């Protein structure tokens, strides 16, 4: 049995109902995304302003291909892993050739994405409705700057804000402040190359085995979950030291009164979800 559940347009509603139910007791969410490349490459030693400027450009002009979500409780007991596959037509979407070939080589079926992929706006509406009911979740990524950026643009259906400070405040007001980046945490752990390791190498050092294929969002989110659990066991991680930091930018994720309309309750109330779809999802997810 495959522990990673592939989600397409035809089983989306059933799997969202399952996630909605599990989030009551499994409030730790491991996130990974796959997207169609970097239109602008960022040098390794780039300034934070350049890192964010390139991030904004790359994310604003591209769209998600896959979203991986793994749920667990605070003790690391995993409830499930889902890989959402979004509609993607190479004839109409922005991408880099190298990235598409790379993803094809790692098993992503672009013909099936075109035919059976999930409409990302429809998913966004449903996702917002579910998360409006489940506040105070803990979000964990690996090298999660682009993951969180794509999540933000998906939920808000708008471009990223102009500055990294606005970006971190927006994350806080949409997803909350309990955001962790395993790559950032690894910079404080002896023997882990000051955070310079990728997820695969980190997993090997920690003797964690992968389930599924590398560079697929479901497998990467599940591997992040097992790596984080192992990291806590081996290094005795004090989460309070690392909460709110993403590898690559210095601003801590904090709430700001200036973003009053972005908590999920406000998103649902004030029309990011169209009224007719809001009632549709209340009906679908309550049956």
How is this structure best described in words?
The structure is a single chain. With 287 residues, the chain is α/β, with parallel strands linked by helices. Mean pLDDT is 90; it is low at 260-265 and 268-278. Strand 3 and strand 4 (78-85) form a beta hairpin. The protein folds into 2 domains: 4-256, Nucleotidyltransferase, domain 5, CATH 3.30.420.10; 260-286, no CATH class. The chain has a 6-stranded mixed beta sheet. It has helices at 12-22, 48-61, 97-105, 110-116, 120-132, 145-156, 164-175, 182-186, 199-205, 217-235, 264-269, 275-285; strands spanning 4-7, 28-34, 66-72, 78-85, 138-141, 179-181. The protein starts with a strand and ends with a helix. 44% of the residues lie in helices and 11% in strands. InterPro entries: CNOT7/CNOT8/Pop2 (IPR039637), RNase_CAF1 (IPR006941), RNaseH-like_sf (IPR012337), RNaseH_sf (IPR036397). One of its GO terms (molecular function) is RNA binding. This is poly(A)-specific ribonuclease.
